[in-house]
Amino acid sequence: MVQNPRHISEVLTELMVRHGYTRQQWSAALEEAWKQAVGPTFASMTQVGRICRGVLEVVVGHSTLVQELSFRKADLLQMLGRLLPDQPIRDLRFRLGRIG
User: Fold this and answer.
1) What is the Cα–Cα distance from 9 to 90, expressed in whole angstroms?
2) Is the pTM of this model over 0.85?
3) Which of 3, 80, 81, 97 has a Cα-to-Cα distance from 53 of 20 to 30 A?
């Protein structure tokens, strides 16, 4: 059975998805956006996790920082919305944990 030739962009897109390149690229963009939104001091004490149904999970190294970030949640969501317009993040969930 002979298949019709495929366009190169279709083949490349399939390869990128299959090998997780787009996921890695998105992860790097998310981390960079988080660093910009939260600032360098807090970025070193936090780590972005996964997004599930529009909720971004963030691991935080100190319990007092969890409280501080909770107070700033609305501002952080607004900033992330500007930095990542293609990925609607509607909420943040902060979880105490180890960073690193």
Assistant:
1) 32
2) no
3) 97
